[in-house]
Amino acid sequence: MALIGYARVSSTGQSLDVQVDKLTEYGCKNGDGKIYQEKKSGSKTDNRTELNSCLEHLRKGDSLVITKLDRLARSTYDLHCH
User: Fold this and answer.
1) Contact 8, 70 (CB under 8 A)
2) Which domains does the chain have, with CATH numbers?
3) Residue 74: which region, alpha, beta or left (left: phi > 0; alpha: psi -120 to 50)?
4) Where are the alpha helices (H) located in 1-82, listed in sequence order?
């Protein structure tokens, strides 16, 4: 089982540091873990290459870890459709 982290900010001027630090503290870089990072708008999930890579990387038994639900999707509809 690996802890796979995903961090996202909406614009290039924002920093991923706080999210990455929290994900690292949680253990996402230990063992087989990894943290995917990107600076993209959350309005559409289909154009987020790191999110797509993250979801493709997940295997049975892995856990996806995010710092806040809105980093993954803007709405439950968007989350469900992805």
Assistant:
1) no
2) 3-81 (3.40.50.1390)
3) alpha
4) 17-26, 49-57, 76-81
pLDDT score of 10 more than 80? yes
Degrees, nearest 5: CA angle 49-52-55 = 150
R_g over Cα of the chain: 12
Which positions are catalytic? 10
Kindly report, residue by residue over 34-67, the tens digit of the pLDDT.
Answer: 999 999 876 666 678 999 999 999 999 999 999 9
The alpha carbon of residue 63 and the mean position of all alpha carbons in its chain are separated, in whole angstroms, by 11
Instruction: Classify residue 61 by its DSSP letter.
Output: T
